[in-house]
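Good morning,

Attaching, inline, the C-alpha cells for the sequence recovery test we're adding to the shared suite. The designed sequence is right after.
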C-alpha cells in the first residue's frame, strides 16, 4: 500500500496543471487506481480506530497516539476540534511521513556504512564507548555522539528521503537572478540536487561524514542552511524535524551498538545496486542484504 501511494503521489498528474483535462485520468485508469488505494487505506484506518474504541485498554498514564486523537475528537479541545477524517489523516501522516522516511534514511545509511567500513568502525566505536556494557541506547546518549550525528547529516545530504520537496507556490511577483516569477506559480525544490552541488560541497558524490566535523561543522538541516534542506525550510518545512531526527538517531545507534555488520559472503561494495526508485520518496531499488553478528553474547 505504501508503494502504491508513493508512486501515485510522486507521479505526473495532468489534471494538476490542466484541470479541464482531468477526465484523462478515467481513461488511463489513474482515477480507479487512486480510488482503490484510498479505499484500502480507509478500511485499514477504520479497523485501527475500531480496535482502539472497543478495547479501550489505555490508561490516563499510558495512551497511544490514536487514543489521544480519539479523546480529542470525542471531548473537543478548545479551538482545535477533530473529525474522524482528521484523525485518519493524522494516522496517514504517521504512516507515510513518519515511518516511511525513517526507514528510507536507515536503509541508505546502513548501505553507505557497509560500503564505507572506516565510517562504520568509527561510528560503532563512538557509540560503544558512550554506552559501554549497557545494551539499550537512550535519548540522553545522543548529545554525546557527534560522529553519529555527522553520519546522519551526510545521509540526508546524499539521500534525502523526499528528493523533491513538497510543491510550493509563490505568494507575490518576484525576480530571482533575472528570472521573473509571477504570483501563484507552482515550483519544486530539488533537495537531492542541492545536496550534491559542487559549488557548495567538496567532493559531493562521496560519503564523507567528517565534512560535518570539519569544514561544514556549522551546517545543520533545521532549515537555516540552504545547502542542506532535507526537511525543507520556512513555513512549509516539516513540522516533525525533532521527532524524525530522534527516531533515526536512536535506531541507527542501536543497530551499530548491538551488531557487527558485513556484506553477504561473496558480495563486494561495487556489486550493490544504488539505483533509486521513482516516487515521492526515494527508496533503493534493491533490498539491502547484510549479515548481522550480535555484539553481545
Amino acid at each position: 500500500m505504501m508503494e502504491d501511494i508513493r508512486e501515485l503521489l510522486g507521479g505526473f498528474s495532468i489534471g494538476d496543471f490542466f484541470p479541464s483535462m482531468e477526465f484523462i485520468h478515467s481513461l488511463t485508469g489513474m482515477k480507479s487506481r487512486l480510488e482503490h488505494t484510498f479505499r484500502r487505506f480507509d478500511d485499514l484506518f477504520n479497523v485501527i480506530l475500531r480496535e482502539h474504541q472497543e478495547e479501550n485498554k489505555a490508561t490516563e498514564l499510558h495512551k497511544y497516539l490514536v487514543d489521544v486523537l480519539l479523546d480529542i475528537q470525542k471531548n473537543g479541545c478548545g479551538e482545535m476540534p477533530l473529525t474522524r477524517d482528521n484523525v485518519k489523516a493524522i494516522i496517514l501522516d504517521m504512516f507515510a511521513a513518519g515511518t516511511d522516511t525513517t526507514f528510507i534514511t536507515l536503509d541508505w545509511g546502513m548501505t553507505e556504512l557497509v560500503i564505507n567500513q572506516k565510517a562504520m568502525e568509527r561510528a560503532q566505536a563512538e557509540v560503544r564507548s558512550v554506552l559501554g556494557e549497557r545494551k539499550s541506547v537512550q535519548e540522553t546518549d545522543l548529545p554525546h555522539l557527534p560522529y553519529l550525528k555527522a553520519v546522519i547529516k551526510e545521509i540526508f545530504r546524499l539521500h534525502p528521503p523526499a528528493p523533491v520537496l513538497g510543491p510550493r507556490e509563490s505568494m507575490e511577483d518576484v525576480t530571482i537572478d533575472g528570472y521573473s516569477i509571477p504570483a501563484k506559480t507552482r515550483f519544486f525544490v530539488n533537495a537531492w540536487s542541492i545536496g550534491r552541488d559542487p559549488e557548495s560541497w567538496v567532493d559531493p558524490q562521496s560519503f564523507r561524514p567528517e565534512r560535518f566535523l570539519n569544514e561544514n561543522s556549522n551546517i545543520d538541516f533545521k532549515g537555516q542552511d540552504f545547502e542542506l534542506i532535507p526537511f525543507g525550510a520556512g513555513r512549509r518545512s516539516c513540522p516533525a524535524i525533532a521527532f524524525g531526527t530522534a527516531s533515526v538517531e536512536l535506531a541507527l545507534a542501536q543497530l551499530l551498538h548491538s551488531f557487527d555488520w558485513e556484506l553477504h559472503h561473496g558480495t563486494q561494495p561495487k556489486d550493490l545496486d544504488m539505483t533509486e526508485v521513482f516516487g515521492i520518496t526515494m527508496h533503493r531499488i534493491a533490498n539491502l542484504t547484510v549479515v548481522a553478528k550480535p555484539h553481545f553474547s
